[in-house]
Design goal:
CATH architecture: 3-Layer(aba) Sandwich
CATH topology: Rossmann fold
Radius of gyration: 15 Å
CATH superfamily: Alpha/Beta hydrolase fold, catalytic domain
Structural class: alpha+beta
Largest sheet: 2 strands, parallel
Number of domains: 1
Order of helices and strands: HHEHEH
Length: 98
Amino acid sequence: MSYLMGDNTSEASLAAVSPVNLADASFPAAMLITGNQDEIVDWHDSHAMYMRLIDAGARAELHVFDGAPHAFDARPKFGRQCASLMALFLDRLVLGGD
């Protein structure tokens, strides 16, 4: 965390910049894509963020890919699928299309 926060990595400082603690109804539409075998970001953290956003009244989507590790979207088949999901998300929740 010191790479991001410098010398101030106290619990209070980290909590102040954590997106999960900033979730409210005005939070921008958010799309979370993860794999349930991600070794860097546990998919439960993405689920917690999704639930926090939904509970706060924000618009959000969560997509969890079974067996997928971190950065799985770099694989062509997954990348195309993720790009399609992102395009649909942007059209529906950001641009206001059907």
